[in-house]
Write a structure and sequence with these properties.
Pfam families: DUF4929. By secondary structure, the protein is of the alpha+beta class. The protein contains 6 helices and 23 strands.
Length: 403
């Protein structure tokens, strides 16, 4: 009996050695597709005259076994509006990351905004496969409207009355932006919780300014976040998976207006940024209407989108389109479809009041809206949300005063 137990013990030990030896010979190396992912932490929009580059980060699913080259290309880039710096990226054996830059050729050719697509052209490693594309926006060089004689007098008056040189706040002003998403939105509206990027805004004196009230208007890239707002708008609408299925009324709408992302123009203006010289602060939160025509307290961004303008015009003219109802195609009024929610109105970017915490998340993601200025900078912080938000996105912007 003892012999049998001893033999069984020896057998089990030998078996375990065999299993371990076999396990050590198993190749656990990933053999699937080596996906090529592109991303950027920069603002993906440039003015045509911009000297700033957009840095593109390349990440592979796994390290390459041998040196490899990936070539990139720009689509809808007629007249070479943008150019690639090091567009042929070499990745050494054992590595899986790379970086290159996209720059404007600064030719001042554009009359309208253009969207350009950055994509993988080809690669030397047969296991590779593109994962995504990047949409880059190029805007015509912004122009600053001339001040009226009365506005010029106002600016001189602010200097005499408040010792406030408003000229330093106007023109093309550089800023740095930090965007912090609600924790539950990571993976939904953003890949990371926090983004930081640089930008520029075109700022002038508001038509609402008076001799006693210095008020600014951001007429291009307000708060440095037009690209961010455009990205969220697309995710709320034309890139929403509930929009783009076969037979969707949203798809019928986009076909009816000839929607073309590369040619559409999305723009934003922000007025009524009032400086309070005695306090060194800004008043910038005001009444605006949300998706349900309810008046809320928020930043009164004014949105414009060419595709929405065309759809709205069809409604105003009593237009109809064919949409799918069950197995049949029926004629539907554009006005009725808009009432039904088949719309491209950017008002989906306006949701709740920001003067108090309406989300009440734990922990709170609300921050108090504040604007302030000193001799070198002016800055803003505010919470912001949109229709499918899961809380407040925190936005912090710091401008450097012009010399």
């Amino acid at each position: 009996m003892k012999y049998k137990y001893y033999s069984l013990f020896i057998f089990l030990i030998c078996l375990s050695w065999i299993v371990i030896a076999c396990s050590n010979n198993i190749d656990y190396t990933y053999k699937g597709r080596n996906y090529i992912q592109m991303s950027t932490s920069d603002d993906p929009a440039l003015s045509e005259s911009d000297e700033r580059a957009i840095t593109v980060d390349v990440l592979l699913a796994t390290s390459v076994e041998n040196d490899a080259v990936i070539n990139f290309e720009l689509l809808d880039n007629a007249d070479d509006i943008l150019r690639l710096e090091n567009g042929a990226v070499q990745i050494k054996a054992g590595e899986k990351t790379a970086r290159f830059k996209v720059l404007s050729n600064r030719q001042s050719l554009l009359n309208n905004q253009r969207m350009i697509t950055l994509k993988v052209k080809d690669y030397t490693d047969e296991r590779m496969q593109p994962w995504n594309e990047l949409k880059l926006t190029v805007r015509p060089n912004p122009t600053l409207p001339d001040l009226t004689e009365q506005q010029i007098e106002f600016v001189h008056g602010y200097m005499e009355k408040y010792r406030l040189n408003l000229n330093r706040f106007m023109g093309e002003v550089s800023c740095r932006v930090e965007v912090t998403f609600p924790a539950d939105e990571v993976g939904v509206f953003s890949d990371t919780e926090t983004r930081s990027f640089e930008g520029k805004s075109m700022i002038t004196l508001s038509e609402n300014a008076t001799a006693d009230r210095p008020i600014l208007k951001m007429i291009d890239n307000p708060m440095g976040i037009t690209s961010f707002l455009w990205e969220i708008y697309r995710k709320e609408t034309v890139e929403n998976e509930f929009w783009i299925f076969e037979g969707s009324k949203y798809v019928s709408m986009m076909e009816a207006i000839g929607y073309d992302m590369s040619k559409e123009v999305f723009s934003v203006v922000l007025d009524n940024l009032e400086l309070l010289p005695d306090e060194g602060t800004f008043s910038f939160v005001g009444p605006t209407l949300n998706l349900w025509d309810e008046e809320i307290e928020s930043l009164p961004f004014e949105y414009s989108f060419t595709a929405w303008e065309r759809w709205k015009k069809m409604a105003d003219e009593g237009g109809t389109i064919l949409v799918q109802e069950g197995d049949n195609m029926v004629e539907a009024s554009v006005s009725d479809l808009i009432e039904e929610g088949i719309t491209l109105n950017p008002v989906c970017l306006v949701y709740s009041s920001i003067d108090e915490d309406n989300w009440e998340n734990e922990p709170s993601d609300w921050i108090e809206p504040k604007g302030m200025f000193n001799e070198k900078t002016f800055s803003f912080q505010f919470p912001w949300d949109h229709v499918n938000s899961l809380g407040y996105t925190q936005i912090r912007v710091t401008y450097t005063l012009n010399e």
